[in-house]
Amino acid sequence: MTVRIGVIGTGMIGRDHTRRIQQVLAGAQVVALSDYSIDAARAVQADLAPDATVYETGEALIGAADVDAVLVCSTGSTHEAYVLAAIAAGKPCFCEKPLATTAQGAKNIVDAEAAHGTRLVQVGFMRRYDAGYRMLKQVVDSQIGTPLMVHAAHRNPAVPEQYVTPMAIHDTMIHEIDVLRWLLDDDYVSAQVVFPRVSSKSHSKLRDPQIVLLETAKGVRIDVEIFVNCTYGYDIQCQVVGEEGLANLPEPMAITKRLGAELRNDIMTDWKARFVDSYDVELADFIAAAARGTASGPSAWDGYVAAITSDACVTAQESEGQIIPITLPARPALYN
Ligand code: NAP
User: Which regions of the chain are under pLDDT 70?
Assistant: First the structure.
């Protein structure tokens, strides 16, 4: 079966996912495109999907009889309405992060999917599909004993001028929030944020770097350094300390050079290149589940928990060092 996919939002990631479906992956075809800017949708149609129909609205695309499944790749604030419409239509829906821009919005999606009774939503937390994180999880699950601590870092060389302090949580750390929960098979119970000296590369509306301290239900302590003006590269670090040993996320493959009296390894600078393979695997997973009329992988519940945790982290940023409790509602049976 070829899954006929409609893509809503044909900006950077919508275009890239369209390319992936059309040129890299088997089992699916993009048959419909929609964007707030119809010219952007037409450009992607011309470049990548000449047989696709361009719709004026996302709602019309979701309702189209020949669309089996939907990719929501538009601006974050629009996700909730499109995902709810896809659930109402009974169509599998891949939603780029965030699932919604508020915890209540994510809860609306969880409630709608739970009422539907089967999974239809996959959230675009692609790190769970990264080969390095998967290897790390295997080692954490079976070799280093009970996890006690995690030391992680998310560093970007630079960010645009409009990037402000809360975005370090919503746009950057959101990936750690999801992947560390998955890695440890645990939930968060509190968050605290501490700010070191501010980098001179930052600006008045961005306190950079920052350290987010999370505690889990099982008692694991996590520190995540977020440093988005680190200048030297895009660098993702994760070390899990267990009772019997520790395990590190592997570095991306790079040639070690002995050159000019130095031992050198290149460090990536572009985040898109760092997890490019995981985007392929996550969409292949979506296509396989959509062919069965369902969804797997990171769920709406995971998106909801990420939203609750993000809100707590932003409150922690604003409260200057206070420990903010994180309380999750009961998990609907659909997500057990
Ligand atoms: P982008 O380049 O700005 O693309 C978003 C597109 O959506 C734009 O073309 C925008 O049109 C369009 N749009 C806005 N409102 C819309 C609506 N109501 N209906 C349909 N289209 C609408 O942004 P992006 O970088 O692709 O990001 C899109 C989403 O993907 C964001 O939620 C982002 O967080 C997520 N993302 C995730 C990852 C990841 O690592 N998983 C990576 C990148 C992005 P206008 O420009 O005309 O407003």
Answer: none
| pTM score of the predicted model | 0.96
Cα 303–329–166 angle (5° rounding)?
Answer: 45
Pairing relation of β-strands 235-242 and 246-248?
Answer: antiparallel
From the CA of 78, give the closest atom in ligand 1: 18
What local confidence, expressed as pLDDT, does residue 86 receive? 98
Distance 13 CA to ligand 1 centre (A): 7
Q: Report the half-sphere exposure of 320 (CA within 13 A, side-chain side).
A: 0
Quote the CA–CA distance of 126 and 129 in Å, as a whole number: 5
Ligand 1 pocket by C-beta < 6 Å: which residues?
Answer: 8-14, 34-37, 40, 58, 73-76, 78, 96-97, 124, 126
Cα 97 to averaged position of ligand 1 atoms, centre (Å): 10
Report d(CA 58, CA 62) in Å as an integer: 6
Mean pLDDT of all residues in the chain? 97
Closest atom of ligand 1 to CA, residue 79? 32
- Say which residues have a Cβ less than 8 Å from residue 268's Cβ, sequence separation at least 6: 233, 234, 235, 252, 274
Domain with CATH 3.30.360.10 in the chain: 128-270+306-329
Q: Measured in angstroms, how far is the CA atom of residue 96 from the centroid of ligand 1? A: 9
Task: Look at domain 3-126+277-299 and name its CATH class.
Answer: alpha beta
- What distance in angstroms lies between residue 73's CA and the mean position of ligand 1's atoms? 5
Residue 248 sits at φ, ψ, to 5 deg, of -110, 140
Angular region, 268: left φ>0, alpha ψ -120 to 50, beta rest: beta
Question: What CATH number should be reported for the domain whose range is 128-270+306-329?
Answer: 3.30.360.10
For the chain, give every residue range classified as CATH 3.40.50.720. Answer: 3-126+277-299
pLDDT for 320 equals: 86
Alpha carbon 22 to chain centroid distance?
A: 22
Please report the atom of ligand 1 found closest to the CA of residue 37: 47
